[in-house]
Amino acid sequence: MKIQLPKDVKFIIETLESRGYEAYAVGGCVRDSILGKEPSDWDITSSARPEEVKAAFRRTIDTGIQHGTVTVLMPGKRTYEVTTFRVDGKYSDGRHPDQVSFTPSLHEDLSRRDFTINAMAYSDGRGLVDDFGGFQDLENRIVRAVGTPEQRFNEDALRIMRAFRFAAQLSFSIERDTVEAAMRLSRNLEMISAERIRVELEKLLLSPNPDYLRDMYLSGLTAVFLPEFDECMRQEQRHPHHDSSVGEHIIKTIKGINRDSSSDDLFKVLRLSALLHDIGKPKTHSTDAEGVDHFYGHAKEGEALAEEILKRLKYDNDTIKKVCTLVLYHDARPEIKEKSVRKLLSLVGTELFLPLFELQRADVKAQSEYQRAEKLDYILKIEEMYRIIVDRGDCLTIKDLEVNGE
Fold first, then answer.
1. pLDDT (mean) for 162-188
2. Rounded to 5°, angle at Cα 281 from 221 and 308
3. CA-CA distance, 180 to 160, in Å (whole number)?
């Protein structure tokens, strides 16, 4: 197999090899290259010790010397991490190794990595080094732990989430022993910081397959970091407008949010809003005399829960504010009159008004087909009226006025 290495990566590898060391591109960059994707970054592993790496290059940064990592600076401010072959010691906290020790063996270094598809190395001289069947798992579209899944997950419980995240991003399945170990050890996620949980959850939500959230639920993961979603999965909706549980409706709504022309930040806000838009339903559930379920006030309850959840996951204030606004108004149905639309505009703001109705459109399409055509037509008319108001330059807030306090 031939992988086209970037010029800088080739230079670093060849420089280390010229000094008698082994050096390889390793991990995700090798995986992505095999899949025909453009790697976002290139990591290099080498038998050279950190001090030897520093001696080989003019400009370096001590990124993580204690773990064997040195960052090499190349022209154009490009940076590449070079990490010495290593083996990890005991993981007392289920997150980080108590200590690491360097090894001359590439095989030992690869054996400590999380999944076979991330445990491949490459150099032009030796070609692909694949001691654990990662290439075959890529061909079979499988996420499989390296070695014993229990050991990998006990070392770092976040790998449990990473298994589902990689599967969602790549449209892969998770190998049976790996997913069964994830289910048995899901409570270990309680040891993981909210920030690390957030990163993996967000990557899954922004992937082409956010419905893998269902697999996280079935495997017991969401019970640890998003128990409110588990309540939604158990909450049925006996109502003409719905044909699935609240949780299944949420999953379909998330999947209905397309990237299209949205910026990355707005796409993130919309998918988080889709995740949380009905999160208040279980707490507001009631059933009338005819056996029809109702969720009066769920948007207001959802706003409060969304803020609580996003703060728990350590989201920034701007994201929290935008998501909570969309959750609060996701069920808003103003009359198709300029006055009503201007009022909602003043509450939501021009930045979030069209995204609000993008969320509503995904929400409608995730419901039953009852009155679907009428609901979608209504959204189109509201959007048309919005554009008329904006194009005309109507004042929507005090700051839009030509006059001020003077």
1. 97
2. 60
3. 10
Q: What is the mean pLDDT of residues 149-157?
A: 95
Q: Is 368 left (phi over 0), alpha (psi -120 to 50) or beta?
A: beta
78-84/142-143 β-pairing: unpaired
- Residue 370: what pLDDT? 95
**pTM for the structure as a whole:** 0.92
CA–CA gap between residue 379 and residue 373 (Å, rounded): 10
Angle at 223 between CA 220 and CA 229, to 5 degrees: 115
Task: DSSP letter for 60, please.
Answer: E
Q: What value does the CA radius of gyration of the chain take, rounded to a whole number of Å?
A: 26
How confident is the model over 275-299, as a mean pLDDT? 97
Q: What distance in Å separates the CA atoms of residue 298 and residue 328, rounded to the nearest whole number?
A: 9
The candidate with the shortest Cα–Cα distance to 5, out of 30, 22, 27, is 30
**3-state DSSP of 295-310:** CCCHHHHHHHHHHHHH
Place of tokens 């590449």: 80
3-state SS class at 147: coil
- Residue 3 region, left (φ>0) first, then alpha (ψ -120 to 50), else beta? beta
Q: And the tokens for 319?
A: 């994201």
Neighbouring-strand partners of residue 123: 127
* End-to-end CA gap in the chain: 73
